[in-house]
Amino acid sequence: MLNRCSSGVVAVETKASTPAGAAAELASVLPASGLAAVLVFVSPCYDPQRFAAEMTARFMGTPVFGCTTAGEIALNGRDENSVVALAFSAADFDVTAHPIPGLSDFRIEDHRTIGADIRHRFFRHGGNADGERCFGLLLIDGMCQREEVVLAAIHASLGHMPLVGGSAADGLRFERSWVYFGGRAHTDAAVLLVFKTSLPFLIFSCDTCEPSTEKMVVTEADPDRRTVSELNAEPAAAEYSRMAGIAGGVLDVTAFASHPVLVRIGDAYYARSIRRVDADGTLHFASAIDKGLVFTVATLRHPVDQTSDLFAQIQEEIGEVSLYIGFESVQRRMGVEHQCDRDMSELYRTHRVFGCNTYGELYGPMHINGTLTGVAIGAPRTK
């Protein structure tokens, strides 16, 4: 059991072997009262419902939110098979939760209903949505494939509020991910947490991709399933391997992490991560795709230097940073593992980054891949 206190937040990690043991260790270290909420990032090695029940029994006066992961970002950097918990002081934070169940039935026409409900409850709790004192944190089932429409609903109602988050994960199994709220673990669901605080904060997003000159056009796709069967009118897997220069055409999670593809939106490029390949060469993506989309093959920049520069820029803007809540793409983590995993882990440790590896990252109205996205929370400003 390890813990670290920052302004307004206590960060704790446990590697207990059972849900009961993990919850007991967290309860033994975290404050017994005076908390606005506890946020947990939970390895899929723990039974989700048992863990939720154990946490509910031990934190009866404090709401617990969170999600399952593809790895944790803990007190000593990257980790696995653990629970990372962040406890937010009620003296510095007010947290309002907005559950969004039934995502498989979520339709475009639901935007207004869901958005109006979020807006009503938010303002009822004193929110102003001006982005000066509030930020949103969205946790969503990473297997639901509904990130884009849910973000659209939230952005339509609270468009001026800074928003970050992540798609819950299931290790590298890509089978079933869970979101924690209301004393239970849920699939096919999301929860929007609105944090109101007097502390300075800044949302951020950082990738390691640089566009090359190699282009591919999606010529056959199933947007609902996020699958691509043809690129440049050729079988997708073979054409992707050829254009990305993957030796031997061996496609696995390591190859996908090392050879991302980008889409251009406005003047910026965003990664589209590939999750897996079917026997017939169909590629499964982690975020929205469509026929006619143009992919650009990416090259990877040095991630440690770039991330270190980002942290320096954030500190210049908001002053001393107490901690970062980070959502890091599992593909980014795997890509870094083959370059400089120890250095990146040390960078996270020294800058107090806590969070998890996800199946996708949420930044403003965007569902993106291949990034480190999150919120930096500053220290109290001196008067």
From TrEMBL:
Source taxon at top rank: Bacteria
Residue stretches making up the FIST C-domain domain: 236-365
Annotated ranges, domain FIST: 33-235
InterPro entries on file: FIST_C (IPR019494), FIST_domain_N (IPR013702)
Pfam family, one: FIST_C
PANTHER family referenced in this protein's UniProt entry, alphabetically: BLR0328 PROTEIN (PTHR40252)
Protein name per UniProt: FIST domain containing protein
